[in-house]
Amino acid sequence: MEDAYREIVRRYERPLFSLVVRMVNDPAVAEELAQEAFLKAFRHLDTYDPERKLSSWLFKIAHNTTLDHLRRHRVDTVSLDPSNGEDEGPGLGDRLADESTRSPQDEAERTDLAQALEAAIRGLRPEYREVVVLRFQEGMAYQEIADITGLPLGTVKTHLHRARKELARRLTEGGWAT
User: Fold this and answer.
1) Which of 58, 63, 128, 176 lies at 20 to 30 Å from 20 by C-alpha?
2) CB contact at 8 A, 126 and 75
3) CA 58, CA 12: separation in Å to the nearest integer?
């Protein structure tokens, strides 16, 4: 049993930490919360439903643990004013993911864009940050995100839409025309 639990931690520690750190914006706190989530999972293994994906169950525990922390500590959030109605358009993800650009200038621009995007993500409301990380970093489907967060599917889609618009607005204001 101990070996199995060790393997679960090894396999999921990075994705869980990544989700939590993006929600709380503090690596030390995120590390504690991720450890707390694993402890909760271990203590409540009897509640795991083998019909569901283990990763979804673990992310749900980490999500709830982090939300409890955020409620207790009332983390400052950034208000999302209505955007100017322009969507970010295609190409932003392609610009970040394009590995074929090898010139130093292209690499520097890619690094700068990645840093700007990371800063823009940090500025999102925690609930928007979470769905963005689960969708685009962890590659989860909308329904999986809904299961983890406990939000209705429509709310997940709305949060993602609003988050993308806010990210586009922030990046455009930062000089990153899409």
Assistant:
1) 176
2) yes
3) 8
The residue with tokens 């970093």 is: 137
Q: 9 near 55, Cβ under 8 Å?
A: no
pLDDT, tens digit, 9 for 90 and up, residues 139-152:
888 998 998 888 99
Whether the Cβ atoms of residue 63 and residue 19 lie closer than 8 Å to each other = yes
Nearest to 83 by CA among 160, 174, 172, 6: 172
Token duo for residue 71: 């409620």
Task: Give the Cβ contact number of residue 98 at 10 Å.
Answer: 11
Measured CA to CA, the distance from residue 167 to residue 16 in angstroms comes to: 23
Q: Assess contact for 121 and 136: CB atoms under 8 A.
A: no
CA distance 173 to 144: 32
The per-residue pLDDT for range 65-98, each reduced to its tens digit, is 988 888 787 644 433 333 444 444 434 454 445 5
Predicted TM-score (pTM) above 0.90: no
Q: Phi/psi zone of residue 77: left (φ > 0), alpha (ψ -120 to 50 degrees), beta? A: beta
175 in the Ramachandran plot: left (φ > 0), alpha (ψ -120 to 50) or beta? left
